[in-house]
Structures are given as C-alpha cells and as structure tokens.
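Why show two proteins at once? Because comparison is the fastest way to build intuition. When a single record is shown, students tend to memorize it. When two are placed side by side, the eye starts asking what differs. So, the first record is below.
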Amino acid sequence: MSPSPDPLSDMQHMAARALDAAKKAGAEAADVLVTGGESIEVSVREGKLEHLERSDGASLGLRVFIGNRQAIVSLGDPARAGFAEAARRAVDMARIAPEDPFAGLARPEQIAHDWPTLDLMDDFSITTETLLDMGLACEAAALAVPGVTRPAGAGASASRSFVFLAASNGFSGGYGRTGYGVSAAVIAGEGADMQRDYEYDSRLHLADLRKPDDVGREAGERAVRRLHPRKPRSVSGAPVIFEQRIAGSLAGHLAAAVNGRAIARGASFLKDRLGQAVFASGVDVSDDPLLPRGLASKPFDGEGLKTSRLKIVSDGVLRTWLLDLASARQLNMESNARAARSPGAPPSPAATNFHIAPGARTPGELMTSVKSGLLVTELIGMGVNMVNGDYSRGASGFWIENGEIAFPVSEVTIAGNLAEMFARLSPADDLIPRAAKCAPTCLVEGMTIAGR
C-alpha cells in the first residue's frame, strides 16, 4: 500500500464508495472489508545480505446479500477499482447463489459503537539498514557458539497493516498494527552427526523485541545441545513434557476443537463436551482480543461486533465455543465476536490471543516429577485427527531419567488422543506470549513413545 498520511481515512472513503455502489446495484444489504499495508523482510547468510523483499498493497472485499443469498467480489487494487461494475457483478452472483439460512449481517443493536485503544502500533520508523544489522547480529551471535559449524539462515522483518470494515447496518471502523520479527537457524556438528535448530521472536512494538544477539545465541546453544542423539526404546503410558516454545501447538489444537464452525458440522472430538470437565481442575484457558500489544488483538471482530475476553475453559470445565454470527445461528446461540475474515472470503470463527493459563509449578519442578520420559523440543508432521482426537507426531528432544536430562533424542513418534491428553495435562508457570496461540511448558501423562 502506498504511504499515506492517513491510510484509514483513505480506506473509509473506499468502503463508502463500495457500499453506495452495492446499494445502487440492488443489494439488500452489504459489507466491505478493506485491508492494506507494507512489509520489509531481510535474510542473511554467512555475514552477507541474501535476500531483501519489500511489498505493499491493498485489497477490498465487497459482500452483498439478496435475502439469504450472498456473494463476494474481491478487488486487488481498490484505489483504481470500478466499484459500480464490481457491485453489479456481486449482485448478479448473489441472485443465483444457494440460500444460506444462517448468512446475514449483525443486527444494528449488536454492532460496536466504541472500542478501546490497544496500543497495536508504533511509529514504524525502522529502516532496511537497521533490519539488516539485526539479521547480521543474530547470525553472528549464533555462529559464535562453540560447536556451531554453519548457518542455516537468519533475518529480520517489519510490517505495518491496516483494516477497515463498513456495513449497511451502520458499522464503520478501522485499526492498524505493526509487527517485527527476528530469527536464526544454524547447524552444529559435522558429517553424519549434524543437528539443526532455531530461535525467533515476534512482537508488535520494536522496543519489545528480544535483542538479536540473545535470539541468535539461543539458536546456537539449542543446536549444540542436540548433538549425539539416541533413539530410546518404545514405551507406552509415559510422561511427555512439551517445551514452552512448542506447547502452543496444544493450544492450537484446542482452539480448532472449540471452533463453532467445526462444532456445527459435528467435526470436533469435543462437540458433546460443553459444560463438562475436559482438563484437570485448576486449568484455565482464555481467548483475549483486548490484550494490549497482543499479537492477535483487535478492538472489534470481522463482523463489527465488540470483542471481549472469553474464558474457554474455567477450572477444567469447557464453557463456550468460538462463535461468529453464522455458527452461532446454526447452534442457536449468540455470537461472542470471534469472526475473522479476508477480503475474498466470508467471516468464520477464529481464536485471537488464545492462551492456556500458567500453573503453579516451574518447568524444573515438572521435570523433577518425571522418573522416565521425554522432553519434546521440536515436533514434525501433522498427524492430528480433529474429528476423533487421535494424535501422532514425529518429535525430537531429550530423554529424562530420574528428573534430569539424560541424553538428546531424535526420530521418535509420540502418540495419544487429544481428549485424554488434555485431561492429563499439567501446565507450568512459564507462559511467554510469543505467538497468538500459546501455552506454558506442559506435562502430559500417559502417552506412547515409539522409538526402537
């Protein structure tokens, strides 16, 4: 998107023109989503710039309704778009679209009229040279770790994006966010005994980002720790600890299982568990779109509803689903403002800042409680069935004996069922919100580990 003194004002003008065109074309109702932004990404290798990419652009999605029939037209260059033609095309498509009894805009009394400032943007004054320096510093720190033999890629990125939504029900609003990242991946060892690992950080404000040197150093240390791995014997009913960095995958599986669209289709292993205990007592899970500087925070959802913090799981009991308007109507419930969307697709429910709450024990105390088991630091593959909860993924990490790390482990598979895994899950106290879906280090009892 070309730089503008007031991008949201430009987007508001585009949205108003598109809504007016939809009304003139015969739409009974309509909404418009305009998105845009710019990004810079720098990658380095062996102390030199390897790749530099800059991008900017904007998109506009016009959704129109004829009764319960809907259609969407997406425009890739809205500043030069012919809104009248796009609106006519959308209305023609809607007239022949199949009826959807659950489609439709929010009622006027449902829409947001005010919302908080969530501190999602900084001044975005960063330069390409600064990003290059960050990537180089990150790589240099990783390569300086004894045992690291070669780089596998490092870099830094920055982005600025804006969203504006307007609808014929009276909603109109927009917001912006910035984002920054730094990462490094390196290889340790030589010959047949080489191991790769990585580290990264991602934040909305540059001032909150970890120092590139620290990120790089941790990437190097992680790679060296993985040298000389073994394959343990296969065992069933074993405790498995998911390191904080990858425990967010468990939160991601839960978010998918409580998605209102999956529930409405009967495609979730938790579809009959609302109001029942799915975790041990004391475990809480929340979804908070109003978290200041949160990576997935937003003041209103993709249908213009005012957002609020949700307790998904309270004291181990499943309390609600993630609902947009359509899934809520299908389930005979009220939307809890979890609609997400892109310009080319209708809304669908999605999580925001979805976190398994920290527990009382430290990661070290969780490890001390394990007589013989596995600490997982990396997951491979995606063998997860969300309909029945079956879980099977490749993994690597460290074998635990008598509460201490014994040796590195690679080429193992961990397996179980998510419903049983959630019921046996104990969170540590080290929650770090480095991703939208995250969790502290988690101990899961009773898993199968397939080794030799």
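Second record. Ask yourself what differs from the first in the token line.
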Amino acid sequence: MKAISFSSIADTDTYLNKNKGSNKGYVLFSSVTNVIELSTRVSDNVVLCSSAGEYTSSGYADGVISGFEYDYSNGEIVEIKYPPIKSVQDLKKAYNNVKNNKNSYMLLLCDGLSNMEETILSTFYFMEPTFKIIGGSAGDNLQFKETFIFIGSKRVRNVAIFMDSKRRISIMKENIYTKTGKTLLVTDADVINRTVKTFNYKPAATEYANALGINERDLPKYFMNNPLGKAYEDDIFIASPMKVNNDKSITFYCELMANTYVHVLKSEDPITVLRKTVQSAPFKPSFVFSINCILRSLKFIEENTWKDFDKEFLRFCSNTAGFISYGEQYYKYHSNQTMVMLLED
C-alpha cells in the first residue's frame, strides 16, 4: 500500500482524476469540512472519514488530507447499518471471502459520537478471535457535534473494509500507560451510557480521587495522565474518563461493566515506549497505517512530544499514513488513549 497526503481538495482532485481507471481504492481522512466537500467529488472506490488530526509521511498534521491507496480488487467495502445486526449477512459474506488468508484483515471505521463501538464489535461474533481487526472512530476536531463517513458520495454510519492482502500483515497496539498497582471495583454502572456510578460501593469520583491521593475537585485534571485500564489476559485496554457528573458518577469514552476490576494507570515516557514498540515489531514494514487517540494526541501537543515522536516513528517507516481518532479498535476490543498500527511487509 502507498501513503498519500494532500494540502488541499484541489490537489486531492488532481491526484484522484489522474489515477482514474487504475484499479486503485482509497481511504482518506481529513476535517469535517474537507470530507463533506470531497464526498461530492469522489467515486465509490473512495472511503472518507472525518478526523481530529491526520498522520502523514511527514508526521503529525492537522487540517491536511491523509490516507492510503490500495489494490481495489483486494478490498471489499461493507456498510455497517444501524443497528449493526442488520449488516451481519453482508459482513459474514465478506469475512468468508478472506478468512482463509492468514494476512487478511478488516479496517473498521465507526461514528465517533454514537457510542456504538462495542455493539458493532459484538456483531462480529462469527469471526475467529485471531482475525485481524484494526479500527478507529471518526472525529470532528473536538467539536463533538457530528462525525462523517462516506463510501463515495453515500454517507454511512460505519464501514468495514475487508482486505485480502497478498503481503505479510501484522497489527500492533501501544499503550504509554502502566499499572500503578491500585485497582477499583466497578460496583454500579450504566453500560449503555458508559457511566460508572460507584467504585467500591462509594461515589465514583470520590473513590477515583482517593486512589490517586488527590482532592476530589481536582480529579478531571488527572484524567489524561491517570486513566483506568481494563485487563484482558496479559493486556490492558485503556478506558478514558470523559467527565464527572453532578451526582459524582463518571462518564467514560468506553464501556465499563459492573462487578469488574479496573486498574489505575500512570503515564510513561512516550518516546521510550515507542522505541520498545518498534523494536518488538515482527518485521521491518514497507507501509504503516497508524491510529492515535485524540486524548493521546492532546497529551503530545500539551507536552510538545509530536516532533520527537515523528522523528522516531518515521525512522521506523516513512511510508506511513493515519489519523487521530475518537477511539481505537484492536481485534474485538474498543479502547481509548491508544495507538494501533497496521504493518505491511
């Protein structure tokens, strides 16, 4: 696959028109305004997704048009309708077409504001746990009003692209957070609204603050550096708190289930973690597609980390594309404050 990026809609138009009839498919990410405008100009071989920032072969950017091109005959685009179960037969058919290829995978793009990621992932009950799924939730540059995904000119809620790759593929996940050794028991939760009412049978905000040893009124200041983590086997999936509500409940960006333990996390040096990540890659990739969470990006902006991150990351692979998301999907899990990557040999 080939990373592509453009500074304007006109440049994008020129490139796509020049390559008409070339059996290429395209997945592009940009601002809401750009994505809406592009949807009036592109064909069905183009998937568009609004973002909260972009990643290019020059590094992190905001407001450009970034993405990649692929062999269109190797990809099958499936709209995921609402509710997702309506699309299960189409998803099964596309999955069955690629499931015997160990290098096949699915790129999943979700509406970033409808809180449906876990419901969508549960719709993939028929897929083997080892089938590679990598995805991100569409953004709208922190407006939190409306996100947009298009297949050509058709607006859709969510989309899955099944790739029958002819090259070796691997997916990876990076957390820049580690356990503090402290845990909280979720004792009352509204799963549908992603809200935890109590930890350890006490108001959620009170117990969260106690675990951090801070004043309760200061708790939101610690959300970025001390999110919570859900443990699955030997892995941690981050659950980012969104806000403290008037009743001291806490709303999160992903589901937390009652009667489960969560880990209080702390941040590590992101560049040190990145070096370990690339060193653990199973091969030196010729192409990388990366998805970084908006909260991770905001932390990098606040701490002036993106420049150093880009230097290390592009040394790993310069043919790279990606976007800043409102949540990440890795296999059948949804998480926050994470980077997920697709590597192509």
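One difference worth noting in the second protein: The chain is about 20% helix and 40% strand.
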